[in-house]
Amino acid sequence: MPMTVSRGSQATPILDGGIEVLQPKNWPVPKGYSNGMMAEGRIVVTGGIVGWDEAGEFPDGFVAQARQVLENICAILAEGGAKPQHVVRLTWYVVDIDDYLANLRELGRAYRDVFGTHYPTMALVQVVRLVEKNALLEIEATAVVPSGK
């Protein structure tokens, strides 16, 4: 259970590692992401990560690729001493937003399987195509590892 602090008259949760969720007073609480986050520590940043495996092969389908992207992000985070709960921002680039929307329930399950119930700030952008022709999505991640960890 996260701690909360009061900013003005809005209580905001303090997550594992001291990351604070920023939620303006009277705004609707978002589902599956946060409006803002604040943290101090070492920054770990990924490039645009696609859903290929170690052999450079892509699984079939949007959800399978999304799961692989998230697993790939976790591998990069681990190299920097970070975990999914340190992620403060994800930027998703998808080639078909309707494919994303049609798979929300399965996508949510895959997300929670890999990242748990940590929901950082997120943006979703539809693009014409990605550099890797077989990629259906690409995600950039930013994490903050608390000082001394």
Show the helix and strand layout.
Layout: E1 3-7, E2 10-14, E3 20-22, E4 36-38, E5 42-45, H1 62-79, E6 87-94, H2 97-102, H3 104-115, E7 121-126, E8 137-145
Parallel strand pairs: 6-7
Antiparallel strand pairs: 1-2, 3-4, 5-8, 6-8
Helix content: 10-25%
Q: How are the strands ordered across the major sheet?
A: 5-8-6-7
DSSP, total strands: 8
What string, H for helix and E for strand, traces the elements in order?
EEEEEHEHHEE
Keywords:
149 residues, alpha+beta, four-stranded mixed sheet, 3 helices, 8 strands, disordered N terminus
What does this structure look like?
- The protein has helices at residues 62-79, 97-102, 104-115, and strands spanning 3-7, 10-14, 20-22, 36-38, 42-45, 87-94, 121-126, 137-145.
- By secondary structure, it is of the alpha+beta class.
- The strands form three sheets. Strands 5-8-6-7 form a four-stranded mixed sheet, with helices on one face. Strands 1-2 form a two-stranded antiparallel ribbon.
- The two termini are 21 Å apart.
- Residues 1-9 have low confidence and may be disordered.
